[in-house]
Amino acid sequence: MKKLDLGNEKISKLLKAFSIPCIISLVVNALYNMVDQIFIGWGVGYLGNGATNVVFPITVICLAFALMFGDGTSAYLSLKLGEKKKEEAEKGVWSGIFSSIIISILFCIFVLIFLPTLINLFGSTEKLQNYALDYGYVIAFGIPFMMIGTTFNSIIRADGSPKYAMASMVIGAILNIILDPIAIFVLDMGVKGAALATIISQFVTFIMNITYLFKFKSIEMNKKTVTFSVDSAKRVSLLGISSFITQMSIVIIIAVQNNLLSKYGATSKFGSEIPITVLGIVMKINQILSSIVIGIAAGSQPIVGFNYGARNYDRVKQTLKIVLTLSLSISVIAFLLFQTIPEKLIGIFGSGDALYNEFACLTFRIFLMLTIFNGIQIASGIFFQAIGKSGKAALLSLSRQILIFIPAAFILTKLFGVMGVLYAGPVSDGLAFIISGTLLFFEVRKLNGKKEETRKEQIIGMGKQGPIITINREYGSGGRYVGELLASKLKVHLYDKNLIEIVSSESGLSATYIENQEQNRAGNLLSELNRSYFQNISNDDALFLAESNAIKEISKKGSCVIVGRCADYILKEEKNVFRIFLYSDLENKINRVTKYYGISKNPAKEIEKVNKARERHYEHYTDMKWKDASHYELCLNVDLLGVEKTADLIVKVLKEKKK
Q1: How many domains does the chain have?
Q2: Could you tell me the residue range of the domain that residue 286 belongs to?
Q3: 3-59 pLDDT tens trace
Q4: Can you give the pTM of this predicted structure?
Q5: What would you report as the CA-atom Rg of the chain, rounded to the nearest whole angstrom?
Q6: Which letter, b or e, does each residue of 167-200 get, where b requires 16 or more Cβ atoms within 10 Å of its Cβ?
Q7: Helices in 450-576 by DSSP H: which ranges?
C-alpha cells in the first residue's frame, strides 16, 4: 500500500498489480480439479468422470477442515504478531498444524471405513459405484497429505511468502498433469491411476510446505512453542469457521444436485450417469470463468476501500466501472463459447455417445444460459464487502447457490424431471443478478449524492503529562458524555468517533466499513463468511489490529481520554493508564437512548443487544470479562451523581492519585 499510491496511481495499473496474482492462483486451483477428469474421460470414459464427481464432495470436506485450520491459523498469527505476542502466535500456529494432522488422520480412517456409504450419499449409481470405490479408496490415502499441505499453504502466505505458497501449488498441479497420462495410458491403471497421480502430486506439495518449517520469518521452532494447546486450537478453529461453512455449503449443493440428477435422470432417456457426469464437468469449466472474475474483483478491493475511506467517491465509481466492464467482458466471451461450441468443450473430457453429447449441449446452453450475469453478481458482492456493507455482501454471496438454486432445483425437478436441474441454473443466475443489480444501483446513487465531509476531531487540548484514561461503558450509561467532559476539564485529547478517521487514514480501510464493523462485530459471521467466499478480504481481526496500532501510537503522544475499543487491554503494558468502567440503571439507560438516540421502539431490547455485542467483542479479543471490576481502577454508576458530577469525581480521583 505504501509502494502503490491507492489514492492517485492509475487505476488500471493498480488492478494489474493486485488482480493478476489472485487470478493465477485461483485458475491454477480450478485447473487442478479438471486435469483428472480430462485424462479419465479419454482413458476410462464418461463413467469414470461420473465417479470422480460423486467422490469430489469428500475432497471438498477435506478442504473445508484444511482451510478452517489454515485460514484460522493465519488470522491468529497476524493478530498475535500485531499485538507483539510472538510466543502466543507460535503456540497458535503449532496448535493449528497439530489440529490439521489429527483431523486428517481421523478423517482418512473414516473415509476408508465408510466410503461405500458416503458415495451413495453423494449420488452414486450402480454403474458408477465400482469406479467411485476404486478412485475413492486411493484418494483416501492421500487425505493427510492434502489437508496438512493446504493448511500449511495458508500459514505460509500469512508468514509473508505468497510466492512460495503459489509455487508449491503450481508445481503440484504441473506434476499431476504429467503423471495422469502415464498412470492412465502407459500403466493402464484407469481411475486408480488418476487418483494415484493426484496423491503423489499432493505429497510433493506437502513436502515442499513442510520444508518451510525451517524458513519461517515471523516465528521460531523450539521445544517451548512446539506444543498443542486446546485453547489455542479452539481460537484458531473459530477464526477459520467461515471457511469451513463456505466449503461445506458446496458439499450440500453437490449432494443435492447429484441425488436429483440420479433420481430424475433414471426416468429419462439419458439415465442417471450421463447427467451426473456432464453437469459436474460443466460446473468445473464454469469455475474457470468464476476464478477470473473473482480475481479481478478481489484485486479491486483495496483500491475501493482506500478511496471510499478517503471520501474520493469519483475514484470509487471509476474503479467499479472498470471492474464491471472487465467482468462483463469475460462473462460475454464465456457465454458465447458455451452457446456456440458446447460439443467442443465437452469433447476435451473425452468422447461419449449421442445421448451424452446431447445432454452436454443442453447443459451448456440451458444451465449456463444467463452466465453472462455472473460477473456482475460476483463483482457486486466484493464491492459491498470493500465498502463495509457485510450484510449485503453476504446476501449476494449466498443468494445464487444456497438461497435460490437449491429450492429452485427441488421445485423445477418436480415439474420438468431431470431438466429441472438445468432450468434451476438460469433461474438462480437471473434472480441473483436482479438482487445484486438492484442493490448496486441504489448504492451508486448514494455515492452520487454524497458530499465531501469535513473531518471533525473532538480535540480539546493536549497534555503531555498525566495518565491515559480509558473508558468502557454500558450502552445508554452516558459514558461517552462523561468522556467528553473529562477531556474538556483535563484539557486533553478525546478519542472516540474521531478514531475512526484516524484508523481509516492509517490503514486504508473504509471509514464506513470501520463504523459498520464497530457496530456489528462480535464474532460477525457474515464478515468472516465474506472473507472466505471473496478470497481473504478485510475482516474483524484486520480492524482490531488497525485500531490497536492506532491506539498505541496515540498513547505515545501524551495524556488523553480513549472511549471503548478495548483500549484498556491494548495498553495494558503501559504504566500510566487509568481504566474506568461506567454503568447505569436500566430505567435511566432507557431514558438516555430514547432522548439522545431516538430509540423509541423496544429500547430495553436494543440496550441488551448492544451491550451483549460489546461484551462478546471485548471477551473475544482480551480473554477477560468486560464487567470484571478487578481490572479497572474505577467502576462508577453514573446515575449516582449524574454525568457532570461523575466527570468531576474522576478528575478529583486522578488528582488524589497523582499526589
Answers
A1: 3
A2: 270-453
A3: 566 677 788 888 887 788 778 777 877 777 788 888 998 988 889 989 998 998 999
A4: 0.68
A5: 28
A6: ebbbebbbbbbebbbebbeeeebbbbbbbbbbbb
A7: 479-490, 498-507, 511-520, 525-533, 540-555, 567-570
